[in-house]
Amino acid sequence: MNAEIVPHPTIELLQTSSLVNVVHGELERMILSGQLAPGAKLTELTLAAKLGVSRGPLREAFRLLEEAGLVKIAKNRGVFVRDIPVEEAVEIFDLRAAMDELVGRRLAENISGAQLKEIRGMVDAMEKAVKDNDAYHYHLLNLKFHDRLVELAGNSKLTEIYRKLIKELSLFRRLNLEDGWLMPVSASEHRSIVKAIATGDPDAAGKAMFDHVMDSKTRTIEHNLRRGTALPDALPVASLIRSSTNTRTKSDAGKSKTIA
Amino acid sequence: MNAEIVPHPTIELLQTSSLVNVVHGELERMILSGQLAPGAKLTELTLAAKLGVSRGPLREAFRLLEEAGLVKIAKNRGVFVRDIPVEEAVEIFDLRAAMDELVGRRLAENISGAQLKEIRGMVDAMEKAVKDNDAYHYHLLNLKFHDRLVELAGNSKLTEIYRKLIKELSLFRRLNLEDGWLMPVSASEHRSIVKAIATGDPDAAGKAMFDHVMDSKTRTIEHNLRRGTALPDALPVASLIRSSTNTRTKSDAGKSKTIA
DNA sequence: TTTTTGCCGATTGTAGACAATCTGATCGCT
DNA sequence: AGCGATCAGATTGTCTACAATCGGCAAAAA
Fold this sequence. Notes:
Two copies of one chain form a homodimer. Chain A is 65% helix and 4% strand. By secondary structure, the first copy, chain A, is mostly helical. In chain A, strand 2 (71-74) and strand 3 (78-81) form a beta hairpin. In chain A, helix 5 runs parallel beside helix 9 and helix 5 packs antiparallel against helix 10. The longest helix of chain A has 25 residues, at 86-110. The relative contact order of chain A is 0.13. Chains A and B meet through helix 4, helix 5 and helix 8 of A and helix 4, helix 5 and helix 8 of B.
């Protein structure tokens, strides 16, 4: 009896990776890195040639990306990288806030000493990035920090959906280039989060996470509006940020003109 | 200039629905209705013949279903309807609870009179089903009730993910056949939810929703355990129900033997 | 000049063919 | 009889070919 069923890495690789998987991963990478920008058209023949595969696997990968919300397939017209409209970004932030509140609660209840030490280290690193004024590095650490927190909450479904949302959100305008002129605020909020978790108070930790995400929402949305990005339809700016998740009258759902 | 661009229904249909879409919808229907039970193998050639299409569109539909979590594609072995293990069902309930708490909050803040009247009507209908001891009808009304609440919260992303979770959850063992021996409890909780929403107190409404989902989790899990469904690995039953979303030690993630 | 109509290239939708892989059954050996 | 190797059938992975649709350009009409 094998103590552990650990197939050779190469075996594992061949068993799991079909062309569809590889193409899917590669396309996702290209999209998330901005190499394929929102709105870009993905022509089957061109991409197939570039990746060295036929159209079949490529189309299957497209379907995966479509369900993941990264591309939009328009019948007989082509596949396009999605452009996330502001309203949707706001919705994602609100949803994330609720999810992260759950994360904070669970962590306050269950986190171990070693794990606490680990995330403290991440906050330290972020504060160092702030001192160095290294916005890019800070951005990466920030992503990693939140991802790790969600992961530590121990709900894999939650993790899965959280990551899906983050991916979609990265398609929101030029969010990636977020200039770090508010890094100190964000960093100090992180410190507060860890402190609340360490205290073991679920309510406090949940609230700290929730508030942080909502603040992050405000910062991101305002930053994007300020960039002079012509708004879809000249919406009431402040109200957008205030209460995103509110009831709508029946017929103003599919009004945005961006590819959604 | 056309006052309203209202394409003929048939036109609209042809523009949006490709074989992939139709097949996807049909397969989803068959899976959710139980016509294709969890664990069932979906053979490409057979299904293609049955549906009258070639393998191409069918495979693309498979990819959509895979990303939606309804089937599992095993390379070189086939496509199988997923079987949701208990642990995952628990995770989904916990996640749903957090989302529904958000729903309750938003509804307490924003619901209109007409909408309140609408959901009151649904609760009335459910209480009638309880009196008639009509478990099936109650089940449908219950689904509709919660779906409508989420919809009314006005966050389309939230709605989308909620529905995805519900679909996956319907694959959990024989959840559909939930005998209604606890309908009265569930029904009275619904009444409380509506009451809390009507009061306009976000905290109360959020808590009512959260508690209801968690109670529903307990009822469902216990009901399924009781059914003599041999447990995957003889887990600590009570602890499963208690705190699902907790931290796990490193290597007990992919341990279930069901197709996941 | 402006608008409309018909055509053509380009691209996507679908189908079918071929190659690779897996499953399980039969045969042979110990 | 038990165990393992080999082979055949079935099924999936990938590619190529054909049909349908779209978008734009040019020519003709107003």
